[in-house]
Design goal:
alpha+beta, Butyryl-Coa Dehydrogenase, subunit A, domain 1, Butyryl-CoA Dehydrogenase, subunit A, domain 2, binds flavin-adenine dinucleotide
């Protein structure tokens, strides 16, 4: 099968699965603020969430290109891949930096769905985007580490068995560079919750199962350290390009969904005795949004291609995420405007998707921080922070 046939088949298979979870499904969950359990189960059973796990560990052994197509199609169908995307990119840290024993222990179970690795704990209330300043500490005591600190906006913890956690193992004043002395741990949430880890869910603008975490002397076995102590920040950075590409693809899916909805509505809504889509004031913003989504999509595939060839792709991955998040947000605004008052009506789903896609201007990395990256690392301008 050629690559384009494979991609076509993959798109068809994901679309078929998503058709079982129509607008009403996502709308109902949004109203109740509940987790798309049945959808995530179906995605797991169809092996889509194990796309990036190598075949020897029971996964599909695909590249980021294919994984991104899977998530794109979820959002393109009107769903929200945010409920399960983390399993794809968090797993990369374990795959690239875990020991063979850890990989044997966890990856086949993650691939089969016996274990979920959907939670990723980096952000803290007091340090935000300045990740290397994080204050959660992990102190080695005999055969375990003792974790103290707080995290915020940690999503899907209540729906995951494992959490990938970034914590400081060497105090900042004892390392040469602030990115040193941080370590990554695989925390077994089934044992941790209630035994040193408190999980406080809180509501956000959209249905995202987000929580604040409080670590009060949580004991994590030393064998759950991933890779070498003190090198965790580098390991997390390694996974960030994949994360950027996958989120970019979700934004492309959103953008196409908004454009399709806006176009269909513009054709069918008749005001002043003609379809509103006959007015250039309605046509042009939709056409422009489409142009911008297509341009962002090229950068997304360029970044994915470089990633899958093992070539440097930091600039392209960041630019893809920025362009795609901007394009989906533009398309979301256009869709609301085209729908007039109905854009605000819950039953049209545009307002839900509008709220959902807005997140990608801020998380997992905000637009400003991407621009800083490009300014400093691509253009050689002085570091601004
Ligand atoms: C729904 C949701 C789910 C999330 N899920 C997770 C998760 O599962 N795991 C996790 O670890 N995190 C998660 N996050 C956190 C997310 O990654 C952060 O919110 C994001 O990285 C920004 O950090 P902050 O909120 O602390 O903003 P801040 O760092 O306080 O930034 C606030 C604003 O200031 C701007 N800013 C900050 N510094 C600069 C600068 N030097 N130059 C220019 N502008 C600057 C930022 O761009 C931003 O617009 C989630 C967030 C949300 C909202």
């Amino acid at each position: 099968m050629s690559t384009s046939e494979l991609h076509g088949e993959l798109r068809r298979a994901v679309r078929e699965l998503c058709a079982r979870f129509p607008d009403e499904y996502w709308r109902g969950l949004d109203a109740e603020r509940s987790y798309p359990e049945a959808f995530v189960k179906a995605m797991t059973e169809a092996s889509f969430l194990s796309a990036l796990i190598p075949e020897e560990y029971g996964g599909l052994g695909f590249g980021v290109t294919e994984a991104s197509i899977i998530l794109e199609e979820v959002n393109r169908s009107g769903g929200n891949a945010g409920a399960c995307h983390a399993q794809m990119y968090t797993m990369g840290t374990l795959l690239r930096h875990g020991s063979e024993e850890q990989k044997q222990q966890y990856l086949p179970k993650i691939a089969s769905g016996e274990l979920r690795l959907q939670a990723f704990g980096v952000t803290e209330p007091n340090t935000g985007s300045d990740t290397t300043q994080l204050r959660t500490t992990a102190t080695r005591q005999g055969d375990h580490y003792r974790i103290r600190g707080q995290k915020v906006f940690i999503s899907r913890v209540e729906h995951s068995d494992l959490l990938l956690l970034l914590a400081r193992t060497t105090p900042r004043d004892q390392v040469k560079k602030r990115s040193e002395g941080l370590s990554v741990f695989l925390v077994d949430l089934r044992e941790a919750v209630g035994n040193g880890l408190t999980v406080n869910p809180f509501d956000t603008m959209m249905n995202h199962a987000t929580t604040a975490l409080f670590f009060d002397d949580l004991e994590v076995p030393a064998e759950n350290l991933i890779g070498e102590e003190g090198r965790g920040f580098r390991y997390i950075l390694d996974g960030m390009n994949a994360e950027r590409i996958l989120i970019a693809a979700e934004c492309i899916g959103d953008g196409d969904w908004f454009i399709e909805r806006a176009t269909n509505y513009a054709k069918s809504r008749v005001v002043f005795e003609r379809p509103i889509g006959q007015n250039q004031g309605i046509q042009f913003p939709i056409a422009r949004a489409h142009v911008n989504v297509r341009a962002a999509d090229l950068m997304r595939f360029r970044a994915a291609e470089l990633f899958d060839r093992g070539e440097p792709c930091g600039a392209e991955s960041n630019m893809a995420k920025l362009l795609a998040a901007d394009a989906s947000w533009e398309a979301a605004n256009v869709a609301i405007q085209t729908h007039g008052g109905y854009g605000f009506a819950v039953e049209y789903d545009v307002e839900r998707k509008f709220r959902e896609t807005r997140l990608y201007q801020v998380a997992p990395i905000s637009t400003n921080l991407i621009l800083s990256y490009v300014a400093e690392h691509v253009l050689g301008l002085p570091r601004s922070y």
